[in-house]
């Protein structure tokens, strides 16, 4: 096995080459890890050409520090730090000075304007018509006649504005006020009932167990996930190894469930509103819905 000479205060001894490579590799990995901690976080899709060049160069320097034993560790480490810190300094100037941004970054490019393809701008982005059509298909557009504007962003993604008459209808176009939406509540996770979440929701444990029983589920441990959205719709996912299928709910059971969901939503509105008159109105109608459900239950389940 080859040996390497290591000098220290006039003394010379031989170190096995494999051990020396291992120690230098450990030092290179630690240095690279610490350097990465100080680098600005950036998603891969946001990487520029300079970012890729810097990353490849830093990797090459770290590899050189590991295996090229003739290079002094301190010199290679200095080069590693310089290549790691210079992009940070450049990034700071990039954010602070607009002139540097203009010099380093061409910005987004309009490739379709008022329905017309700008061939000159396509050439600047090194795109042909097939590439443009591919980007449009990714956006779900197969007909160029639907496009009003299209912009090629700096990260290589195509942003598209459809023509007004080709845009999908929204609730505001129909004059319908959308219902308030929020994050769904997870009531069961990995077979465990989340009582703290349940206590802060308008739903009760009895309601949840009853809904699960309607689906033929009597053991909570069978449930991987159970969550309820703001409209009161309960989603249940079971463990695959249990061999339990969630049966469809009958129309009668669906009516009873919707009445109960409506009562729960009214109670939620009553808790959220600061208007005493509205709170009383919500709770009055909640009691009416609850009474209607109780009266219909014997007939719908009979």
Give an overview of the whole structure:
The chain is an alpha+beta fold and 302 residues long. It folds into 3 domains: 3-101, no CATH class; 109-166, bsu07140 like domains (CRO Repressor), CATH 3.30.240.20; 185-300, CRO Repressor. It is built from 10 helices and 10 strands. The strands form 3 sheets. It has a 4-stranded antiparallel β-sheet. The chain has a 4-stranded antiparallel β-sheet with strand order 8-7-9-10. A hairpin with a 2-residue loop joins β7 (185-189) and β8. α3 (73-96) crosses α4 (98-104). The longest helix has 25 residues, at 276-300. The N and C termini lie far apart (88 Å).
Query: Any idea what the CATH architecture of the largest domain is?
Result: 2-Layer Sandwich
Q: Give the strand line-up of the largest sheet.
A: 4-3-5-6
Q: Write down the CATH class of the largest domain.
A: Alpha Beta
Number of strands: 10
N-to-C series of helices and strands: EEHHHHEEHHEEEEHHEEHH
Query: What composes the largest sheet?
Result: 4 strands, antiparallel
SSE blueprint and pairings:
Elements: E1 3-8, E2 11-16, H1 17-38, H2 49-67, H3 73-96, H4 98-104, E3 109-113, E4 116-117, H5 119-124, H6 129-138, E5 147-152, E6 158-162, E7 185-189, E8 192-193, H7 195-199, H8 205-214, E9 223-228, E10 234-238, H9 251-272, H10 276-300
Antiparallel strand pairs: 1-2, 3-4, 3-5, 5-6, 7-8, 7-9, 9-10
Task: Summarize the entry for a quick read.
With 302 residues, this protein is of the alpha+beta class.
